[in-house]
């Protein structure tokens, strides 16, 4: 096994990287030395797409899907996202924090040092703000880096089913100003897909969100091709996420506009959807990121290592491509590639050590967690 003679010196940020033999010149008495001989040091994963603050369980719907019901059928009956919405509307902020805290802690223990979390299970003004309040408290109190996204346009709630545009009015006129005032969300995301929001409705939300200073994301091409990726390209969204049904047309539009293609192979696995065409995206020069999509319905995992395995086995990605997609390109999907996502001098010291001799083992030996140590901003957290 090839051994690298490498050392990394950091406080909050990375100060120096080089051969161990040259590190003594950079050491002083107050430097703590961690011997990682035989281990693998990598940048923390940047999980740029999750819905990990919610309430309730959808294990019953999971069983129904295994027996043949589709995600879209369950959603059309008022289940799916709306099942979680009912539980969230009943939940207080503390219980929302508890759910998010447990998942975030587990994500960190599996190597994710930055995690984006979306609202979108409240679907009324107060419940969306409560979800964002929970996300904000995790942002301030949890050891992981937490990035907030407002996703009021995740589904049309039952009280507006007859007139979805009236709900879009509420998102634009009532939610967005309060979301801005609250200050937790950096991004606005919309579920632009068959049975959810049309391109026209999505554009209204996204253009208003931009006016309020939020950067834009889209759930695109997951269920059907209705023009979501082209909209993302036209609006200059920072990322378009899912892309299970995207064709070469969508891929080229996203590439040409510099939109990060965030792929969520755990969702394709769970919903038995076709996997996104990662190979074409990469070969055509698009920027591909990987994320969990951690949520109670379409993909219940917070473990990025599993996502890398799925990406390599089912989307034709190499181990090296999957690691870049899960770190630096995830950071790009959050506008953070200058600060996190790689081990470079000047970036935050978000460092994960695995008790395996090669980065290849992290993907190769799937289903086991070899995380041995985690530092976020230079602080050891696990
Ligand atoms: O990313 N696609 C839309 N939203 C989530 C699913 C949320 C849910 O089913 O609870 C997703 O897959
Ligand atoms: Fe999602």
Structural class: alpha/beta
Read across the widest sheet, the strand sequence of neighbours is 4-5-6-7-8-9-10-11
Task: Look up the CATH topology of the largest domain.
Answer: TIM Barrel
The gross shape turns out to be globular
Q: Please tell me the overall pLDDT.
A: 96
Strand content: 15-25%
Q: Main beta sheet, described? A: 8 strands, parallel
Low-confidence stretches: none
CATH superfamily of the largest domain: Metal-dependent hydrolases
Taking the alpha carbons of the first and last residues, their distance comes to: 27 Å
Which bin fits the share of residues in helices? 40-55%
Radius of gyration: 21 Å
Q: Order of helices and strands, N to C?
A: EEEEHHHHEHEHEHEHEHEHHEHHHEHEE
What are the bound molecules?
N-(iminomethyl)-L-glutamic acid, fe (iii) ion
- Level-1 CATH class name of the largest domain: Alpha Beta
Number of domains: 2
Tell me the number of helical segments per DSSP (H or I, 4 or more residues long). 15
The CATH architecture of the largest domain would be: Alpha-Beta Barrel
For the secondary structure, the number of strands is 14
